[in-house]
Amino acid sequence: MKYLKFSLVVMISLFFLGACTPKSIISDTPATYNLSLELLEQADGQFKAKKYDQAIRSYNELIVRFPDTPEAARAMMNNGLIYKELKKFSEARPFFEGLVAKYPRSRLADDARIEILNSYLSEGNYQQTIDKASELFDKSYQGTYPMDVYLVVGDAYLESGKPEHALKLYAVALKMAPEFERNEILEKIKFGIDRIPADRLEFLLNEMDDTFAKGDIIYQLGLKQFEAGNHAGALLLFNRFLNKFPTHNEASQAKKWIDAIQKQVDEGHYAIGVLLPLSGKYQELGQKAWTGIEFAIAQFGSTFQTPSISAVIRDSGSDREQTKQATAELASGQVAAIIGPMVNAEVAAEEAQIQKVPIITLTLADKITEHGDYVFRNFLTPHMQIKSMVSFLVNSMGMKRFAVLYPKEKYGTTYMNLFRDEVVLQGGVVAGSESYDVSMTDFKDPIQKLSGLFRDISDNLLAKRLEEFVDTYEQYGATDTLINFEKPFADLGAIFIPDSPVKVGMIIPQLSYYDVSGVYVLGTNLWHSENFIHLVGDYSQKAILTDGFFAGSKNPRVRSFVDEFQATYGHEPGFIEAVAYDTAMLLMEILVQNNILYRSQLKDALTQVTDFPGITGKTSFDHTGEAQKDTYVLFIKNKRFLELKQP
């Protein structure tokens, strides 16, 4: 490319020699014309073949030998385009500037002016692009500029963070554009719309004349709202578009969008999608969840005087692709929202977000709600359990001193970290933390490292203190309990053991054997089973645990739910049935509100849910879509689970 650099020097010299005397392009003799045309065709062929060195030599020869021919202006233009193609914009610019100066009346002069602007734009010199446009075109034009000027300057405004200015210029260009160029400009308009807040867009539209270009912007804004799932906003814009521009080219399409939105309202307003594993290894869980949803629909229909609400059921199985396909089918079937899935929730969440359909997952999958603002979770999470337990132990029971004995695997480590952080947050102290291998059966080493951290008190006294607390708590409530007992557990402590009943059944007896006494043992919802009581035996009287549902609760709402469920299905409901029931009830109560017509409105309404009175506790959703709720805190007496605290 050494010749390219030499060529640039030569052409700049030619530019300065001839710039002072602009030339008219004249018709030469037939012989001259044939020679210049022949040389141009040769150079163009070399350009097309990407033989840039040869092309520039030929173009330069043409310019020197036949400077006053139309072919010379074309040669100078193409020299600039070669450098543009090589992305050497500062080296391309002198050729375009030379063409404008030497051949100002050439039909290529405007193209060269636009290429000058493009060169600055390509270099990221946005303000110079804007300033140069006025300099290049104001002298030669009065009123309307070439369409490409509005596009290039619009791009410069957009890239420099001024999308409102850009949109105004794109609107002018759209009004001038031939049909085959409109789609490209509309894409620029869509991009600009995305960068302007809704209130500013409305202000901008009010400033514009009622031209078809303004109609295009309103229509594109309606499409954007529809794609974002804001069907209410889309409907308003499409109707506004038709009222203002009934003869617009897109009028018939706008009517179709309005019909599609209305159809979704008519067909999907009272339909809930249910996505559960009704086959495969998780079939039992899926069936439990469906039973809870089915019971909710039946109760809701008999209690509320509303149109019947139906369920559209799809089997997610245990396969990711099946889950994704089922989610897409439910979304396209115009259900208002989806409950589930329980497994492979990530692919369902991703698809639901794409389809803009609210989905309330029943899963423990990590960070599931981070898939988007249409994704929610209503399930018992580790953080929920730990927060409820520690808050109650510290603030209601007055307990301050804790330790953790946990398995070295994901479940144990997750709960250990959450517990430690929450204790510190609530003002307590984690006096010790020891791990053990999951294959271990003799826990002497980790237990002995925790010995001496707590007072030496008998298990019988621990149980007695707990029973006295429960009696007073039920009689007076949490605040009076602390006053009457003067924080009776402040001198005691607890060891948190986040493991299965089988493993805990080995550990708890060894605590006393290795001189770790005077402590309660704390666990998760895994302990809430008859098997745990059987495995732990008499040591169960010192156990405290959490769960998201307790069928033996004294809460009247829970008692009524459990009695009616048992009468219908012949067995007590568990947590899965209860949380699925609550999720369906919550959705249905929102749906029957008169102002909920679209999925986007339902999504927004879900984010506003505060203290929904569910069977699994009062439920709210935070800004991320995670359910926020308290849990039950349970203990064991006479080999039966009892409430320490209701949610």
Describe the structure.
45% of the residues are buried. With 647 residues, the chain is α/β, with parallel strands linked by helices. The strands form three sheets. It has a seven-stranded mixed β-sheet, sandwiched between helices. The protein has a five-stranded parallel β-sheet with strand order 2-1-3-4-5, sandwiched between helices. A three-stranded antiparallel β-sheet has the order 11-12-13, covered by helices on one side. Among the domains are: 269-379 and 556-623, Response regulator (Rossmann fold, 3-Layer(aba) Sandwich); 382-547, Response regulator (Rossmann fold, 3-Layer(aba) Sandwich).
Q: What is the number of helical segments per DSSP (H or I, 4+ residues)?
A: 27
The structure class reads alpha/beta
Radius of gyration: 37 Å
DSSP helix fraction: 55-70%
CATH domain topology of the domain at 269-379 and 556-623 = Rossmann fold
Which of globular, elongated, flat, extended, rod-shaped describes the shape? elongated
Q: What is the typical, i.e. mean, pLDDT?
A: 84
Q: CATH class of the domain at 269-379 and 556-623, anyone?
A: Alpha Beta
Poorly predicted runs of 5 or more residues: 1-28, 476-488
CATH architecture of the domain at 269-379 and 556-623: 3-Layer(aba) Sandwich
What is the CATH homology-level superfamily of the domain at 269-379 and 556-623?
Response regulator
Number of DSSP E strands: 15
Query: How much strand?
Result: 5-15%
Largest sheet, if any? 7 strands, mixed
